[in-house]
Design a protein that fits this description.
Layout: E1 8-10, E2 15-24, E3 30-40, H1 55-63, E4 70-76, H2 95-101, H3 105-123, H4 128-140, H5 143-158, H6 162-165, H7 169-179
Parallel strand pairs: 1-4
Antiparallel strand pairs: 2-3, 2-4
Helix pairs in contact: 3-4
The structure holds adenosine-5'-triphosphate (ATP) and magnesium ion.
Length: 181
């Protein structure tokens, strides 16, 4: 997940801040209370605590996926979350979905439109105009530049080009569209 979710977005140097965070489990038990921290731009920080203490829950609060029962989360700059597992059992997400999810909001929106246009092409006749518009927006949102960067990421992390790592369907269909193949 990316984009700060429910957190407040402010301008200036990037940072992530939690102030007096409290979270209660469904049975009413307080998982943690009065948790405060600030991580400034450029810091590499690890959260180390016993199993079940609430690390994942805290990260879900930071990403905005969960709402705290007390306290506030503030995020400035961009926020991207890379989950531990992508595309494993009962998870249909692709490497492309992961890369899109940690991109700027405009790129995420353009990617969604391309996906919808691809779906329309498969299910409705003659949806070429929607696809053409989606691809033009994708180009304008600098989607193709992003794919160049993603290619470097997948080569470094997986040793395969982006087109292959992205699990094909989206990227290959789009390439066929753009080249008229
Ligand atoms: N939706 C939920 N309903 C009930 N209990 C929950 C829920 N979510 C989390 N818990 C409980 O809250 C505690 C903290 O869970 P959390 O996954 O945040 O811990 P963690 O520090 O990430 O654990 P681990 O080290 O195993 O990854 C655990 O005891 C867990 O069982
Ligand atoms: Mg965890």
């Amino acid at each position: 997940m990316a984009g700060g979710g429910g957190g407040t977005q402010t301008s200036g140097m990037g940072h992530v801040e939690g102030a007096h965070l409290e979270y209660c489990l469904p049975d009413g038990r307080v998982l943690f209370a009065d948790v405060s921290f600030r991580v400034g731009e450029g810091s590499a920080v690890a959260l180390v605590v016993a199993n079940g203490a609430g690390k994942t829950t805290l990260l879900r609060l930071i990403s905005g996926e969960l709402k705290p029962h007390g306290g506030t989360v503030t995020v400035s700059g961009g926020l991207g979350v890379m989950p531990q597992f992508v595309g494993s059992i009962r998870d249909e997400r692709t490497v492309r979905d992961l890369l899109v999810s940690v991109s700027q909001p405009r790129l995420r929106k353009a990617a969604r439109a391309v996906g919808e246009a691809e779906h329309a092409v498969m299910t409705v006749d003659d949806e070429a105009a929607q696809m053409a518009q989606a691809l033009s927006d994708w180009a304008e949102a600098r989607g193709y530049e992003a794919e160049t960067l993603w290619d470097m990421c997948t080569m470094a992390a997986l040793g395969v080009p982006y087109e292959r790592a992205a699990a094909g369907a989206h990227a290959q269909r789009r390439r066929a569209e753009t080249t008229g193949a």
